[in-house]
Amino acid sequence: MNAQSQSEEIAFDRSLPARPGELVRLSPLVRRMIAGNAGPMTFTGTCTYVVGNGPVAIIDPGPDDPAHISALLEVLGDETIAAILVTHTHRDHSPGARLLKQASGAKIIGCAPHRPSQEAGFGRLDAAHDRDHAPDAIMSEGDSIETAEFALTCVETPGHAANHLAFALAQEDALFSGDHVMAWSTTVVAPPDGAMRDYMNSLEKLRLRNDKIYWPGHGGPVVAPQRYVRALAQHRRAREAAILSRIAAGDSSIDAIVAHIYEGLNPALRVAAALSVLAHLEGLVARGQVAAEGPATLEAVYRPA
Ligand SMILES: [Zn+2]
Predict the structure, then answer these.
(1) CA 31 / ligand 1 centre spacing (Å)
(2) Structure pTM?
(3) 3-class DSSP assignment, residue 103
(4) Interval between CA 305 and ligand 1 midpoint (Å)
(5) Å from CA of 187 to ligand 1 middle
(6) How far is the CA of 179 from the centre of ligand 1 (A)?
(7) How far is the CA of 60 from the centre of ligand 1 (A)?
(8) CA-CA distance, 62 to 37, in Å (whole number)?
(9) What is the pLDDT of residues 192-214, one digit of tens each?
(10) On the chain, which terminus has fewer CB atoms closer than 10 Å, C or N?
């Protein structure tokens, strides 16, 4: 049996969540407002979550979009903001934190300033980084913030980004999963921000938890999350097997591999696909399963080890 036939279908859910600018109640403790930044990488836009009632925590204020922040503040009215949490430093998640801090005085906590998973001269997705993120406090594994009503606890989940965090809401067995696990799509794991080994370890970490629902950075919730996370891991293992067999078949460039294994790819996602293949090849080269002339890069020549 080959790796493809072993892999479960991933049950993606692309049902559209609420319109941008509307604050929607999802549970007793969770509300969501979607930013107006829909696109091929962001689906219907970044999900900004409001946790709690009265003193609230805001998770991922989103892009540098004053209209989104003022719409959020307007619907919150008299509710005070206890903290602004950020999952990771991509420009669709963290820049809005500074606008919200300026307007509300609340502190920015959560992920560390931007850092690549490795020092390498890629720079392809540089535009995606938010290098200006300067948190008032950094959360590490197990750190919590609490109000009388709820606690949010940090779960380190590197992979999509080196500084990526998820936040657990124990009162509802919920996890704010950021861009690590989303219902609408697999996440981008692209060097230098991302690393495949970290991503796979972070999937395994979530698989062993008992969360009942995930609230992701884009799109609707992940239900039955442990099963979903297992399917995501199998999908990546199948993708890795497909790359190995393309190398064995004589493909020596990432372009050739992408053309073979991503049929019908949206051209807007081509660079992301190439970087995803690179993320796999980095791991395969490091483990000696594939040879590269020089370091694993987008332009390198690859061959069977
Ligand atoms: Zn995102």
Answers:
(1) 18
(2) 0.91
(3) helix
(4) 35
(5) 9
(6) 5
(7) 9
(8) 9
(9) 888 999 999 999 999 999 999 99
(10) N
Ligand 1 centroid – CA 169 distance (Å): 20
Cβ neighbours of residue 287 closer than 8 Å, sequence gap 6 or more: none
For residue 220, the tally of other CB atoms under 10 A from its CB is: 22
How far is Cα 88 from Cα 106, in angstroms, rounded to an integer?
18
Topology (CATH) of 235-304: Arc Repressor Mutant, subunit A (1.10.10)
- The dihedral through the CA atoms of 290, 295, 297, 301 has a sign that is negative
Q: How far apart are CA 81 and CA 96, in angstroms?
A: 14
CB atoms near residue 286 (< 10 Å): 12
Closest CA to 26 of 46, 11, 48: 48
State whether the Cα torsion 152-156-157-158 is positive or negative: positive
Ligand 1 center from residue 37 Cα (angstroms): 10
Q: How far is the C-alpha of 200 from the C-alpha of 232, rounded, in Å?
A: 9
- 24-233 CATH: 3.60.15.10
The Å distance, Cα 259 to ligand 1 centre, comes to 25
CA distance 19 to 107: 28
Q: Tell me the pLDDT tens digit for each residue of 218-233.
A: 999 999 999 999 999 9
Q: Which residues crowd ion ligand 1, with CB under 5 Å? A: 92, 179, 217
Query: Which residues belong to CATH 1.10.10.10 in the chain?
Result: 235-304
Which pLDDT score is estimated for 100? 98
Distance 92 CA to ligand 1 centre (A): 5
Give the CB-side neighbour count of residue 16, counting CA atoms within 13 A.
Answer: 6
